[in-house]
Amino acid sequence: MNKKGEFMLGEYTLKVIIAVLCILLLLYMLFNFYSSFTDKKNFARAEATLNSLSEKMIDAKNAQDTAVSLPLLEPNGWRLISYSEAEKPKQCTRNCICLCEDVNWKDRAQFWGGTTQLDKCEMRGACKNFEEKINDFNIKIRIDVNVEYKNRGYLISEKEVS
């Protein structure tokens, strides 16, 4: 009876371990599915925000020397960055504005060099090219920005709170 009881206990333990592993595998797959869905949604939001910014830039160009304001709300946790000089994402050809996922602590903690903001823009970013000059900026989303057109170039800055 002793040996039979030990065998039953071992068989039961094995079934519980397999069940727990299956549940963990299902949770991992569910998390990956959800992450891919939100990544696509955030990319679509980023493109829509860039299109709104582009329209406001046209409005600022037509208004000449008058600042046009625009709230940047989506996607949360991303950055609006201008690239006009040396290093820029592959999708940028000239003066470029990108909306990219922000570099977080996990990206910086990697032992083999870490991920830079430029890498993030190439992996998960929406970029738009412009003919006119654009000032340098790096703005975290969830803020209002001012867009001005002066001296054949755009000046984009955070709106000052008054």
**Strand/helix succession:** HEEEHHEEEEE
Count of individual helical segments: 3
Question: Order of strands side by side in the largest beta sheet?
Answer: 1-7-8-5
The domain count comes to 1
Strand content: 25-35%
* Terminal Cα span: 83 Å
Helix share bin: 40-55%
Uncertain segments of ≥5 residues (pLDDT<50)? none
**Oligomer category:** single chain
Gyration radius, to the nearest Å?
A: 24 Å
Number of separate strands:
8
Largest sheet: 4 strands, mixed
Mean pLDDT score: 80
Structural class determined from secondary elements:
alpha+beta
Instruction: Give the overall silhouette.
Output: elongated
Walk me through what this model shows:
With 162 residues, the chain is α+β, with helices and mostly antiparallel strands. It has three helices and eight strands; from the N terminus they run H-E-E-E-H-H-E-E-E-E-E. It has one domain (2-158). The strands form two sheets. Strands 1-7-8-5 form a four-stranded mixed sheet, with helices on one face. The longest helix is centred in the first third of the chain and has 62 residues, at 2-63. The mean pLDDT is 80.
